[in-house]
Design goal:
The protein has about 110 residues and is mainly beta. It is built from 1 helix and 9 strands, in the order ββββββββαβ. The chain is about 10% helix and about 45% strand. Keywords: Cell shape, Cell wall biogenesis/degradation, Glycosyltransferase, Hydrolase, Peptidoglycan synthesis, Transferase.
């Protein structure tokens, strides 16, 4: 059984899915802008909500830091930029793939 964990690297705008210490997938992301930066630290996925509506695309995965999550987007041109209110934004097809792989309580490390 995989031992998944997620690393969000803000400096290179990538989300890495690791199994143990091996990167198994890499996804481009959007992160928080200057005034609403993405929080740094260690968190975990606490819930998943398909089709949350609004700007969150096809999937919301809430983090253990309230009001922050990993989610899809209705604006794919934003990926690869610092434009969010602090969440980690992914292409819809990527967030679906990730949500199908990782269980609730998957550790998420967000680093500068």
């Amino acid at each position: 059984m995989p031992n998944y964990r997620i690393i969000v690297d803000i400096s290179d705008l990538k989300l890495y899915l690791l199994d143990g210490n091996i990167v198994v997938r890499e996804f481009p992301i959007a992160v928080g802008k200057m005034l609403t930066k993405t929080p740094r630290g260690k968190f975990e996925i606490i819930n998943k909500e398909p089709n949350p509506g609004g700007p969150f695309g096809v999937m919301w995965m809430g983090l253990s830091k309230p009001h922050y999550g990993i989610h899809g987007t209705n604006d794919p041109s934003s990926i690869g930029r610092r434009v969010t209110h602090g969440c980690i934004r992914m292409y819809n097809e990527d967030v679906i793939e990730l949500a199908n792989l990782v269980p609730i309580h998957t550790p998420v490390t967000i680093r500068p």
